[in-house]
Write a sequence for this structure.
């Protein structure tokens, strides 16, 4: 695989649709390996979604949703495909596996250099012909979409962060204590590799990356939606409230009654509302 700029397609299984829509060619789903700016190959998938039924024959009328999964997720996991299917009702969808996950290369840095993976996916999503890009992240991916929007202004038209932490090194719940063992201990990383099919980097963060709550004020004027369940077993409700306070008038908080954590807890009705909000706010 050759090196190149972020979003460069290192290997492609693009398959154009054999038919046309309104006299213009419509592209079917694509599966590619993208190259990040630091040289990691990222497995990514594109679905045109609602654009297939658009009689105008153009993709630019529809947003494209770039979905950033949680820790130990991957592009082919059923819960990620369910999320993609829900957003496909509103526009195109790009899903991908973060570094160290699935068929992507490299090792997970648990939210640090994953910003580069998202940047490559966003660049590729926009190259599909969509004029508007919405990033939607869950848990670890929720923190990544916040930091990406802060560090790469202008790349996205709306940001949705679901079940994100507000601050690093949180160990206040049993699931987070287990996750820290998985990430920081050699035996934990073995469990991660063989039990969760996630390759975790052995080095500590150096320097410590910008935290989600520090990133949020830098996102404006891009529309921001923060979604969190009041029954989240990983991050209690002080996390979304900290994020919302940092966002001020530029952010919107949905605190969902009875909702647990991340993709598995996001029901179809919530996903539909997120899709509608994104179409409305992305301009």
């Amino acid at each position: 695989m050759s090196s190149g700029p972020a979003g460069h397609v290192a290997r492609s299984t693009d398959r154009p649709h054999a038919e046309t829509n309104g006299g213009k060619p419509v592209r079917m789903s694509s599966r590619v390996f993208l190259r990040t700016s630091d040289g990691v190959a990222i497995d990514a998938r594109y679905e045109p979604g609602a654009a297939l039924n658009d009689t105008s024959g153009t993709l630019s009328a529809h947003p494209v949703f770039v979905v950033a999964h949680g820790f130990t997720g991957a592009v082919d996991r059923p819960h990620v495909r369910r999320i993609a299917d829900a957003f496909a009702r509103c526009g195109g969808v790009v899903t991908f596996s973060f570094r160290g996950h699935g068929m992507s290369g490299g090792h997970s840095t648990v939210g640090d250099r994953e910003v580069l993976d998202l940047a490559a996916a966003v660049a590729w999503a926009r190259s599909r012909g969509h004029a508007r890009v919405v990033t939607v992240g869950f848990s670890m991916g929720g923190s990544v979409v916040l930091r990406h929007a802060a560090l790469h202004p202008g790349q996205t038209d709306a940001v949705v962060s679901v079940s994100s932490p507000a601050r690093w090194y949180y160990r206040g719940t049993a699931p987070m204590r287990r996750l820290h063992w998985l990430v920081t201990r050699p035996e934990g990383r073995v469990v991660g590799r063989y039990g969760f099919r996630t390759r975790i980097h052995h080095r500590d963060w150096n320097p410590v990356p910008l935290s989600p709550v520090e990133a949020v004020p830098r996102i404006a004027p891009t529309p921001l939606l923060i979604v969190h369940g009041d029954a989240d077993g990983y991050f209690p409700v002080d996390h979304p409230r900290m994020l919302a306070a940092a966002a001020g008038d530029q952010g919107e908080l949905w605190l969902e009654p009875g909702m647990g954590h991340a993709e598995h807890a996001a029901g179809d009705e919530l996903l539909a509302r997120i899709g509608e909000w994104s179409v409305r706010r992305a301009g």
